[in-house]
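Team,

Forwarding the record for the chain on the shared tracking sheet. I've put the sequence and predicted structure together so nobody has to dig through attachments.
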Amino acid sequence: MYKPFIVLLVLCAALSACSEEDAPDNLEPRLLVGEAVDITRHEATLPGRVELSGSTAMPELWFEYCSDAGMETFTCQADDAGDGGVQARITGLKPGTKYEYRLKGSNGRATVSSDIGTFLTLSNDKPAITGLQILSQGPTSVIAAFEITDDGGEDIMEAGCYIADLGSGSVDKLQAEYSSSIDGVICRIVIKGLRQSAEYELCPYAANSSGETKGEPLPFATRNVVMMSEPGELAELLGDDMYQYEEMTFAGPMNGYDIRCLRRMMGRDVDGSETPGRLAHVDMTDVNIVSGGGSYDMSRYTEDDVIGYGMFADCTRLEEIAMPSTVKTISKDAFRDCVSLERISIPAGVVDVTPSGGCQALQCVEVSQANEYYSSVDGVLFDAGVSSIVWFPMGKNGDYELPATVTSVGDYAFRGCNISEFVFPDGVTELGKAVFLESKVERVVLPDGLKLLPSATFQDCAKLCEVKLGKGMELVSDYVFDGCTLSDIYVGAKYPPVCSDNAFDGTADDFFSTCVLHVPASRLAMYKADNKWGRFDNIIGIDGI
């Protein structure tokens, strides 16, 4: 009874073995598409997958896509994404449009396709912008900027800033200048004609055909200060208003163009001609002087952290200035002929100061208490240890006595001063060059410890009548008495000091006949025999000189 059933089982097994041996191993690949990702207005990423059977080789693959409006069909090569996956990034799409796509492949025998997928590109929108940033500001002006980070898929029609005057209630609209950046479009706005000491609200905007986007309103108040973010902006920031200010605080980087503008505000143009500028009181504490820009006086250019030669020369309206805290050097004649300048403040970081001539009204040179190199005593500039005098203000009058700690006098220290009589303390052993240049001194007594009169010591001291050289004097340099009308010179040295060839150059033709030379009585013959001192017609010997 079991034989038919056994025969049936054997027959089925045989048929099954025959089916497996005869099955084809080169079936066509199966193509699948996934959901499109990273969709924007103009781009999308199409994903796909290939399933192979048996020994079927990977076919050549591509995506085919078109809009659902029956427009032209496009193709794009499919790139390997690993693990049997492929993908393609398609571009040039239209915003707000539905697209159909499929994956296709060919192995040379046949072409196969996946099912159709769909996606919708993003629609165009209003622009996206950042908040407004204040770059620079003046008493009646401001430079601001913001960025258009997304144009919304359409051309920007207009961008700028709404300016609301909170005092008057008026609202103005000002368009911006555009420039490209890595991330978007930079919009820069220069706003002028604001009221001084007034409150405003500034609101950036950008518009395309889809609409206008406004940024967050930014409160802003004008005040008597100029703040710059970039060097070279001062003239643009102030415009024609630069001539109306008498007092101003500045902050930010300044190059040659800015110093040129600042000079114009002080009444002096780059070529030395006069301007309508009225600026008299200047605070530059938060300014950084940097190299670059044009010259500030036809031939001089700015250097980093340097008040340069002639930088404020001939600015006759300047009365007071606080220099940048970052300054390290104040050069010779930086304030030459600033005849109204009464006060100068030396910052903490200054390590090198050379006086300026022609500052007739200068009463005080102040120094920051944090400065390690200089100090001020009664408005006179000394080194930190009060051992060397650096700058005696021309505007100081009356008698003056050097501190007993002083041992040296710097170059030009008493240039143009109004002190009529000067007796140096015994501790002074060194003079700089041109110490009394153009001063009004009438009588000077030098100490016995001083050995050298440097060049131009008394040059152009038109009122100088009497000079006493101490016992230690050894050398009189060139042009020491140039422009002087001396009546008496006293020399206490045991041996006639050596005189440079040009020591007496620049004196009047009758200098040697009108000026009386006083020497030690015991050395009278020696002085008369000297080829330089012997030129004096009147040489008198004095005991105990």
